[in-house]
Design goal:
single chain; 329 residues; alpha/beta; Isopropylmalate Dehydrogenase
């Protein structure tokens, strides 16, 4: 395999990240890809013993990781921090540094606990914004994000607002912000998914997409001006569409990605269609970043019962995006 390995973070060491990483390696060890975990190795060693899997192998770089991958999960060891959340942040920083240097082809992040991160002074709403901050010094080909997109069950949904309380999310909507999100999504679908002419669909905010102002004016005042501008730029985009009728099978066939205005509007349909296999993708970054679409699952961590479906899908998605960028280059 000529491309560099993927860089995998451990997530919160007290969550399911360690066992998921090992289960994903077990499922993918014979495929034409490779990933290496950047972390304090102790939680992985304990998880390997729990799962009766080979102990992960400490490696010094990408070439060694590729040599051992079919037999052992490769790990680039980081010094342990006093607090688990600090270990999670250090893992993210190391993986992103590897991608920035070319030692990794993409970053796949295991789940973190936002509340634990905030306790140590973490200044970002979540992974998405932190990875954007860490890569802000790199040049960007296309519209810069970050934009959070979920993928699963044959549906892609991209969010105009992310981890924002609902009332604040609605109040923050502007024609410029909505249009910028659509541009990031369109450019990413071309660059990272190989779609020459992406078809987008814009979700409305109000019931029946506002019913021409009878049930709210946001569609008329915010979404329609954004759509008019995007269409004048040559983008193929429909909407605003009633959210209650745009996610069934026939409707989904008419677009490649849906632009959703707030968190639950985009996540509910994806998780309904593919609860265990959804993938979180950050669009509009100089590097590729994906993540499983679930949390740390502290309640089942250490029991060996966590399902790796979403992490496996995130790894495969990242590798596919790497190949798409290589083809487009």
């Amino acid at each position: 395999m000529s491309r560099a390995p993927l860089a995998l973070t451990l997530g919160d060491p007290a969550g399911v990240g360690p066992e998921l990483s090992l289960k994903a390696w077990r499922a993918l060890r014979d495929e034409d890809l490779c990933f290496v975990v950047h972390c304090d190795p102790a939680p992985l060693m304990a998880a390997a013993q729990l799962l009766d899997l080979p102990r992960p192998e400490l490696v010094s770089g990408p070439d060694e990781a590729q040599r051992v991958f079919s037999n052992f999960l490769p790990v680039i060891a980081l010094e342990a921090c006093e607090r688990e959340a600090e270990n999670a942040v250090r893992s993210i920083e190391a993986a992103v540094d590897a991608a920035k240097s070319g030692a990794a082809s993409a970053v796949v992040t295991n789940p973190v606990s936002k509340s634990r991160l905030y306790e140590i002074g973490f200044a970002f709403p979540g992974h998405t914004e932190f990875v954007a901050h860490l890569t802000a010094d790199l040049p960007m080909n296309g519209a810069r994000g970050p934009v959070m997109m979920l993928s699963g069950g044959g549906l892609r949904t991209a969010l105009v607002t992310i981890h924002t309380p609902l009332m604040a999310a609605i109040q923050s909507l502007t024609p410029e912000g909505v249009a910028h999100t659509a541009r990031v999504v369109s450019d990413a679908l071309k660059r990272d998914f190989g779609l020459a002419r992406p078809r987008l669909a814009m979700a409305g905010l109000n019931p029946h997409a506002g019913e021409n102002g009878a049930l709210g004016h946001e569609e008329l005042d915010i979404l329609e001006p954004a759509l008019e501008q995007l269409r004048s730029e040559g983008m193929t985009i429909s909407g605003p569409l009633p959210p209650d009728t745009m996610f069934h099978e026939d409707a989904r066939a008419a677009y490649d990605a849906a632009i959703c205005l707030y968190h639950d509007q985009g996540l509910i349909p994806v998780k309904t269609l593919d609860f265990h296999g959804g993938v979180n993708i950050t669009l509009g970054l100089p590097i590729i970043r994906t993540s499983p679409d679930h949390g740390t699952a502290f309640d089942i961590a250490g029991q060996g019962v966590a399902r790796p479906d979403s992490l496996i899908a995130a790894i495969r998605q990242a590798d596919a995006m790497v190949q798409s960028r290589e083809t487009a280059a």
